[in-house]
User: Which sequence fits this backbone?
């Protein structure tokens, strides 16, 4: 899965999307290369989340083309989806299950996942000791950390993160920035929406209006 | 870390396991439909007549309608929690065909809400005086019929999961699709009691089951994609 740095990974062309009567974006173009992080900025309601959901194939009310390594994601989603980790607004963590059980499922959907790996990912995310407590006993930030553990476990090429910093404390922010840096060092790509000033080298910013 | 992509079968199994685990941890998922079935069918002797011969005549219909309503009651929590906490998005961005994952969820749901109803049905049948020779027919038609109800109901739930209040609309979508199963199930019990062979009815219901296993998850998957849009 390793691809050389600088090579084009995801390409969005001529994207047009409207919500209700309002045009969210028109002629939007976006290229993410391997080893690159793009931060999507813009005021509330400017379509940041919609853009991310369109890229991931969760929203199909758009016109334009989205290609992953030369193949359109609409027609050939398998290769794209197996290289994608999407973490949305909602953390995707079931409240009655433990972090361990949640990750066994959401990562087990993608690859054979060992409990040992999950334990070590949770430890890296600062959740040692919480592996077996039900998620409703965890705070919002801790649940966010459970969700972020997927980044460690999935080892995907493309990360699409929607407001990953919102509930994190200062340590968590540093941790996630560290993960992003490691990810681009490995040649991965990321598309992130946040209002936070990202401390990541070579960051590109896409402003939505 | 050594990464090996999960096969479709493995993805199917982890999804099924997860849903069963959630049901196990939230016990009312298991108890609710079961208790509902028990309560509605025990209302008929009170409301209509405690006379065994009159009850015996309507027993087949009572049991099937109660099973249908119990399955409808249980339907709503099939995708709602996943929709609200974002797990549904994780399901949709998985690289596997959604058909198998939806099928896994439907099977898990039936094991939790349908199977207990099937297992308890002979006891309720005894209570409302279903003719004894019909017990096995009732059991087998419910065993084939309740999975159909789960699979078909799943389409309605998937369509309505994004709506705020969906109490009646779910019933409006799912019940008409469940009527053929209801007809086949009750007819099978009544006609076999009159001496007709069971095989034909089982074949019809089996065909319905196969049809819904192949088609309903496809429709549910599409409906889920529309709902998260």
Assistant:
């Amino acid at each position: 899965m390793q691809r050389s740095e600088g090579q084009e990974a995801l390409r969005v062309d001529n994207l047009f999307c409207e919500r209700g009567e309002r045009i969210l974006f028109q002629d939007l173009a976006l290229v993410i290369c391997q080893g690159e992080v793009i931060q999507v900025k813009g005021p509330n309601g400017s379509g940041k989340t919609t853009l991310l959901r369109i890229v991931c194939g969760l929203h199909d009310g758009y016109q334009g083309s989205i290609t992953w390594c030369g193949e359109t994601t609409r027609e050939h989603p398998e290769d794209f989806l197996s290289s994608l980790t999407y973490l949305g607004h909602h953390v995707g963590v079931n409240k009655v299950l433990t972090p361990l059980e949640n990750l066994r499922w959401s990562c087990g959907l993608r690859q054979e996942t060992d409990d040992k790996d999950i334990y070590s990912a949770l430890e890296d995310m600062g959740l040692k000791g919480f592996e077996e407590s039900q998620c409703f006993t965890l705070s919002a930030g801790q649940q966010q950390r459970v969700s972020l553990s997927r980044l460690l476990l999935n080892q995907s090429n493309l990360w699409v993160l929607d407001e990953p910093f919102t509930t994190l404390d200062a340590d968590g922010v540093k941790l996630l920035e560290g993960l992003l840096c490691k990810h681009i060092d490995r040649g991965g790509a990321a598309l992130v929406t946040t209002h936070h000033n990202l401390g990541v080298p070579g960051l590109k910013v896409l402003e939505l209006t | 870390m050594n990464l090996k992509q999960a096969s479709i079968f493995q993805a199917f199994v982890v999804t099924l396991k997860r849903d069963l685990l959630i049901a196990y941890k939230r016990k009312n998922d298991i108890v609710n439909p079961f208790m509902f079935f028990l309560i509605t069918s025990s209302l008929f002797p009170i409301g209509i007549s405690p006379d065994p011969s009159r009850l015996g005549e309507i027993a087949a219909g009572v049991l099937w309608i109660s099973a249908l309503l119990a399955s409808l009651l249980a339907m709503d929590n099939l995708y709602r929690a996943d929709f609200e906490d974002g797990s549904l998005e994780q399901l949709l961005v998985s690289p596997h065909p959604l058909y198998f994952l939806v099928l896994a969820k439907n099977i898990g749901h039936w094991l939790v809400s349908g199977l207990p109803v099937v297992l308890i049905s002979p006891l309720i049948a005894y209570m409302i005086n279903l003719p004894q020779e019909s017990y096995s027919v009732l059991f087998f038609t419910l065993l084939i019929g309740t999975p159909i109800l789960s699979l078909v109901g799943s389409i309605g739930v998937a369509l309505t999961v994004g709506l705020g209040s969906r109490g009646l609309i779910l019933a409006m979508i799912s019940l008409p699709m469940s009527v053929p199963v209801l007809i086949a199930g009750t007819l099978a019990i009544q006609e076999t009691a009159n001496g007709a062979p069971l095989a034909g009815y089982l074949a019809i219901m089996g065909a319905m089951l196969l049809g819904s296993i192949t088609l309903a998850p496809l429709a549910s998957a599409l409906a889920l994609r529309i709902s998260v849009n």
Observations:
- Residues 8-228 of chain B form one domain.
- Chain B touches chain A at residues 1, 3-6, 10-11, 14-15, 17-18, 21-22, 25-26, 81-82, 84-87, 89-96, 101, 225, 228-229 (CB under 8 Å).
- Chain B has a mean pLDDT of 90.
- The longest helix of chain B spans residues 98-127.
